[in-house]
Amino acid sequence: MTALVLLFACRGEGITAEECADRVDQDDDGRVDCAERDCDEFASCGNGAVPVMNEFMANNANGYTDEAGEFEDWVELYNPSPDAVALAGWSLSDDPDVPNKSLLPDDLVISGTGFLVLFADDEPTGDLHLLFKLAREGGVVVLARDGVVVDRLAYPQQETDRSLARTPDGGVTWVSTAAPTPGAPRE
User: 33 near 20, Cβ under 8 Å?
Assistant: First the structure.
């Protein structure tokens, strides 16, 4: 397995839980400071927990399928909190300059310590489909809340049917794996 380190580290030292709840960006990097810290330090941010991108596949030929049976690229979100998170105001994008490229439906919810798989197929065919595709040759994917990037990953060229996944779930280290676990915990 190849380990990748998440692009952001624990910055914004001295951020209080109250500042986090106000979605403060003290270091002016365009990301809410609590999203840059370990999930254990701040269990929630804003109106609820902070979900993270947990796993994705940008070159899906024979793996996980969407509801139509198609092998689409996908992004898995993970909610490290025991509380459910409503995804109103959340979005994903393959362009950090346009973080609201694919807004998630207001009624979409991730259960406590749950997973949600979204298909990056540039086909507006349902609530779980994003309006962009992931670049096989490498690119960037961001998760944003109300237009503020809270999670970002720049990734290298992707091999067929291998995913990049955080280990452990919600952790800071990314690994390339031939055993993807979309919608399920990593073991």
Answer: yes
**Tokens standing for residue 123:** 């086909």
Query: What's the Rg (C-alpha) of the chain?
Result: 15
Query: What are the tens digits of pLDDT across the range 107-149?
Result: 999 999 999 999 999 998 889 999 999 999 999 999 999 999 9
Closest C-alpha among 78, 103, 109 to residue 89:
103
Task: Give the torsion sign (CA, 144, 169, 71, 156).
Answer: positive
pTM of the complete model: 0.77
Domain count of the fold of the chain: 1
Phi and psi at residue 145, to the nearest 5°:
-125, 125
Per the structure, the complete domain to which residue 160 belongs is given by: 3-177
3-state secondary structure of 18: helix
3-state secondary structure of 108: coil
Query: Does some domain include residue 182?
Result: no
- 140 vs 48, 97, 133, 186, CA distance in Å? 25, 11, 11, 23
Tokens of 17: 């839980």
When pLDDT is cut at 50, 70 and 90, the band that residue 18 belongs to is very low
Classify residue 186: in a domain, yes or no: no
Q: How far is 60 from 162, CA to CA, in rounded Å? A: 8
Distance between CA atoms of residues 36 and 123, nearest Å:
31
Give me the amino acid identity at 149. V
